[in-house]
Amino acid sequence: MAFSEANPVVFYVFVAVACFMTGFSKAGFGGLMGPVVTVLMSLVMPINQVLGLLLPILMVGDLFAVTAHWRNWNTRLLLVLLPGAVLGVIAGMYFMQSVPVTFMKRTLGVLVLIFVILRFVEGVVKQRVQGKAPLWYGVPLGMMTGFSSSLAHAGPSPISIFLLTQQVGPVQFVGTMVAFFTITNWIKLPFYWVNGMVNPALITKIIWLLPVVLLGVWVGRKLSRRVDKVLFDRIILVFLALTAILLLIQ
Known about the structure:
mainly alpha; 12 helices
C-alpha cells in the first residue's frame, strides 16, 4: 500500500512542507532545501517514489527562479557543464536500477554527507581561489552534480566549486546555477518517466498544493533581507548531517 493511501493526512502535510521549502529555497536560500526535503520524505516513503514526486515540485520552483534570474547565466559555462550532467544522470539512473530500494536509502545518506562536506570545501575554495581553473574541469564536476541530482535532488556544490574557480560575479553565479538545475531537472524527467518513478495519479492528487511553492517564495523573499544566511546555512548543514546519519543507521 502506498504511503499516501495508508496515511493521507501525514502525506499531504509532508508534500505541503516540500512545496513550501522548495519555494523558500528558490527565493534566495541556495540549494540546501532540495536534499533536506528529499531526506525528510525518504524517512516515510521509498526513495524512488520520493524522487518522482518531488521532481514536478522542483520544476514549478524552477519557473520562479528562472524568471527572477532571466538571462543572468553564463551560456559558455553552461555548455561546458551540461554534457557532464547528462552523463551523470544516465549513470545515476543505471545505478538506481541496479541496487535494492533499501540500499538506495543508505546511498542517499552517503550522498548527503558528501554534500555537507563539499559545502564546507566550497567555502574554503571561495576564500583561496586564485586564477581560473581549466574549463574541462566542468565536465567531471557536471557529471558528479548530475549523478547526485538524479539520486537525491542534491548537487549544487560540485558546480558551485567550478563556478567559483571561473571567478564569475555573484549575479552570473546564481543565474548559471538556476539555469543549470532547471535544465537538469528537464533532463531527468524522461528518465524518471521511463523507469516508472513519476506517478501521474499521485501527482494529480497533489496539484492543488503546488501554489504553496509560491507562498514559500514570498516568505523566502521577506526573510532573505532579515536572516543571516551564513548562520542559516550552517544550521541546515548540521540538520542534514544528522538526518543523513539517521538514514545510514536505519
